[in-house]
Amino acid sequence: MTDTTVLELVSPSALLKSEPVEMVVVPGTEGNFGVLPKHAPLISTIRPGVIDIYMGGKVSERIFVAGGVAEVNPERCTILAEEAVSIADIKADEAQTRLEAAKAAFEAAKTPHEKANAERDVEIAAALITALTN
Amino acid sequence: MASLKDLRSRIASVKSTRKITSAMKMVAASKLRRSQDAAEAARPYAERMGTMLGRLAAAVGGSQGAPKLLSGTGREDTHLMVVFTADRGLCGGFNASIVKAARAKIRALKADGKTVKIICVGRKGADALKRDNGDAIIARYSGIEGKKGIDFSEASAVADKVLELFDNGEFDVCTIFYNKFVSAISQVVTEQQLVPFAGEAQEDNQEADGKGASAIYEYEPSEEAILADLLPRNVGVQIFGAMLESSASEHGARMSAMDNATRNAGDMIDRLSIQYNRSRQAQITNELIEIISGAEAL
């Protein structure tokens, strides 16, 4: 049997996943990184992107996250995601609508704070579409 | 002595009150189940966020570059209090106990010569606090609990406000007051410091001992950058957690309050019925005596 590490995926509203996996690829802010069992301790922020979960030597599940943080230690990989959805559950036209709504909000934003928030939403929606097309 | 008619109408009115309270109890019980699930589901995130921040805070320590949300402004003259109450009453001591705790804190702070600012989440708290601290209330939110429960966006709205105030240097210390859900009959008023970040150092140590996680972490990007990203998010998460806890507590408190009210109404109906029957009997006896003594007189 191959070695496994425990993946914990937590969103603000629920503990989404807590299960052994062979490898996860996490979209870190400074580049993707793969987490195998006995990975060196690491804390990294996450950019909007896709988490690939490997089980049985191939990708078993792909989950989109809208950003967050990942904490890796030799026994487990904890991902605190702001929003997490399985790629299989996303529809292309919904993502497109979301991108347009975010762009509109960005145009309408007045304060720098609103602007920054809207810009982030645009980034997330754009990443979502990229995730779908790949 | 109340007449029979009065008694009858009192019994009828208590009966309809009992109907209402027992219906409210049912509603609260079903809402409680949902909000309790939500509150419990949200705990892992807040806890892990707490441990991670604790670790980061320990790593950055008291270095100069530490973000202000962690190290504080260096003063503690102005206190911001975020008070979580319900929008509605009829939930026992739920609102009163929060307001009482908040008032005590306000008095203590004012006695120390500090300025107090208040953000009220929930209509009841704002109503109660505006009587003696009306000018201190800078923002109020209500109707946070929608049909589908509490959405994270409600928490972000409050968190954004808190962060905006902090960036403008309008307060130094932020504390949140909410009812922590323990069980349907027990809620604990909890005071939690939000800014500057107060790590649960003990908890962190325990975990480090247990899992050998005290190893040195690598950070990507730097500790400071992660902290700068994480601290504002933590404010939102803690506020969201408080909202969920408060909502579960509210429904729990309302359920037990309405259960008591229903039971009281039942007791009262029993007492009134006995009284009603006795006076009816007394009246009949009286009439009989009158008839008999009338007949005897003939």
TrEMBL record, chain A:
Entry coiled-coil feature ranges: none
CDD domains in alphabetical order: F1-ATPase_delta (cd12152)
Molecular function GO labels: ATP binding; proton-transporting ATP synthase activity, rotational mechanism
Record keywords, A-Z: ATP synthesis, Cell membrane, CF(1), Hydrogen ion transport, Ion transport, Membrane, Transport
GO cellular component: endomembrane system; plasma membrane; proton-transporting ATP synthase complex
Topology with respect to the bilayer: Peripheral membrane protein
Highest taxon listed in the record's lineage: Bacteria
Subcellular location: Cell membrane; Endomembrane system
Domain ATP synthase F1 complex delta/epsilon subunit N-terminal, first and last residues per copy: 7-84
InterPro entries associated with the record: ATP_synth_F1_dsu/esu, ATP_synth_F1_dsu/esu_N, ATPsynth_dsu/esu_N
Function: Produces ATP from ADP in the presence of a proton gradient across the membrane.
Family: Belongs to the ATPase epsilon chain family.
Binding partners and assembly: F-type ATPases have 2 components, CF(1) - the catalytic core - and CF(0) - the membrane proton channel. CF(1) has five subunits: alpha(3), beta(3), gamma(1), delta(1), epsilon(1). CF(0) has three main subunits: a, b and c.
Record protein name field: ATP synthase epsilon chain
Provenance organism: Thalassospira profundimaris
TrEMBL record, chain B:
Any one Gene Ontology molecular-function term assigned to this protein's record: proton-transporting ATP synthase activity, rotational mechanism
Subcellular location: Cell membrane; Membrane
Membrane-topology descriptor: Peripheral membrane protein
Keyword annotations: ATP synthesis, Cell membrane, CF(1), Hydrogen ion transport, Ion transport, Membrane, Transport
Gene3D superfamilies: 3.40.1380.10, ATP synthase, gamma subunit, helix hairpin domain
CDD domains xrefs: F1-ATPase_gamma (cd12151)
Origin superkingdom: Bacteria
InterPro entries attached to this UniProt entry: ATP_synth_F1_ATPase_gsu, ATP_synth_F1_gsu, ATP_synth_F1_gsu_CS
GO cellular component annotations of the record: plasma membrane; proton-transporting ATP synthase complex
Keyword Transcription attributed: no
Pfam families (alphabetical): ATP-synt
Family: Belongs to the ATPase gamma chain family.
Quaternary structure and partners: F-type ATPases have 2 components, CF(1) - the catalytic core - and CF(0) - the membrane proton channel. CF(1) has five subunits: alpha(3), beta(3), gamma(1), delta(1), epsilon(1). CF(0) has three main subunits: a, b and c.
Protein name per Swiss-Prot or TrEMBL: ATP synthase gamma chain
Organism: Thalassospira profundimaris
